[in-house]
Fold these 2 entries.
Entry 1:
Amino acid sequence: MAYHPNLDPELRAVLDRTPLPAVDLSAMTMEDVAGIRAEVHAVAAAVPRPDSGVTIEDRHVPGPEGAPDVRLRVHRPAAGPEEARPCLYWIHGGGMMVGTPEMDDAFLAEYVERLGCVVVAVDYRLAPEHPDPAPVEDCYAGLVWTAASAAELGVDPGRLAVGGASAGGGLAAGTVLLARDRGGPAVAFQLLICPMLDDRNVTPSSHEFADAVVWNRDANLFGWRALLGDRAGGDDVSPYAAPARAGDLAGLPPAFVDVGELEVFRDEDVDYAMRLVRAGVSTELHLYPGAFHGFDMMAPDTALGVRARQTRIAALGRALRC
């Protein structure tokens, strides 16, 4: 593919060394999802566990009413003071269709080690087998359990953040909206990394990046169809599934939003951040020049990748008083 002229030179060099395979997402069908998921999960399973001072334990907790239990992956410092720690409740990405908490083990280890926090990562049900509202309801059920089990987990319920990346960022925003509207757990902060927020796909950036690194317009349309079926882009879509549709953002916790300049989600993320500000929600927004979707995961050692990780960790540390 031809790269965008604004692509950061260091990111371009990474792509030149390790080019992405060409995938015709416009021709993908729902039947293809299982194969793609198996490939992604096999790659994730082959990645060695991080060599860090972090212990990991899987827990199974009650899911939504009438639904299966939800698996939570609890990351905690292996040693240190026994006082109640801040907690990040984390939701993985994957276009609503793929992904496991294990994919983010190394990513989350940095948060645990740098901030001394506990991270609880949720394994939610995936579309299209489990369409909306299953994913966000699983995420909410796990959050409810986490808050209720704060003493057991050794966390401070007053320092509980919800975060996620890409589809996980969208689910994080939806979970926080549910917590507000249901009078659920008190969330101190929301960490929204390049979040997938709007099924309507009508922003300029959603049209601009028909050809893009990692996640283009066709992929985004397909992901939303997997989650919402024929409702995608129509009038009957819940704001908990597509948070950009929420009419009222007042009363939400302080937020951090970041996104790359060269990605489908750019405009919906910037718009959401500005709507949060106008609703009286203290919000930090970062737009990374020359960056594509997931740049920090593909090129973590580049200047932009390092800056993005450090900025997020610093913002979370300030919010949770780490």
Entry 2:
Amino acid sequence: MGSSAEIPRAPENVLFIEDMTDKQLAETLKLPSGLTNLGNTCYMNATLQCLRSMPELHQSLNRFTGGINTGYPAKNLTASLRDLFQQLNQTTEGYSPYVFLQMLRTAFPQFAQQNNNGFMQQDAEESPEEEPVITKDVFTKLNCFISERRSVNYSKYTRISRLPEYLTVQFVRFFWKSLIRKKVKVLRRVKFPLDFDLTDICTDELKKKLLPVRDRLVELEKEKLEAKEIGYDSKIEEIKKLVDPELAADFGANTTGLYELCAVLTHTGRYVDSGHYIGWVRKDDSPDDWIKYDDDKVSIVKSEEILKLDGGGT
């Protein structure tokens, strides 16, 4: 016996994420492309991915009309960065930043230094031993102090008079240890937030300009949490009116005193001259998701994983 109905089709093959290749995973999850490691270039790759998260940088680079081979290393570097970002936006596969690397080494020869193993690893904070400082003083008598010297405590205060739109904060984990004449890494854990209020360490003059809009934003955030409202769209005009006119006219300045973490660059490993660098960038369309750039390996992680990047033994 048979049926006049259409013979059911066989189910399509199901491909699980765990079985996907890097290319299939990137296309399915719409992940941006990674950068191929060209030999100790993981710090450069991670830094480029962090810089890539700045839309203003893309806009400025796209306005640059120069090409490569201009005879000016700085212009060649700018053109190669522009071309690299454009090429990264057109592919989901790992991309080789070879041209940019060549332009970087030409403009900054220190990145072309080599040892017996090839090109040397470049780090976030180079820590060479400080050169001795020699000065000459003119004097007509030699003082011999016969009383005890007194100890004096000094206090130093630093205040910020202008905040940039993008703030770079570096935990200086590499330093020169003179006792052993070697660079070492500080392994202690340092906690950091996803949101950062910097108004407390600004000058009184700048603080006066920042506080009206900062305080209103804090209030709106509290209202959103209590009422479970979404976004500040209906309050944008109100917030704009609170921004100080001088700060509004200062292109590239922060007008609120508030920062939201958008990128992190980490070093894994206990030693300065080895280890590996990874870039982590917040996803624009999903604030709780972050993109992990491990050279050409790209994946998605949650915000809670970012907060675990506080250092320690790795």
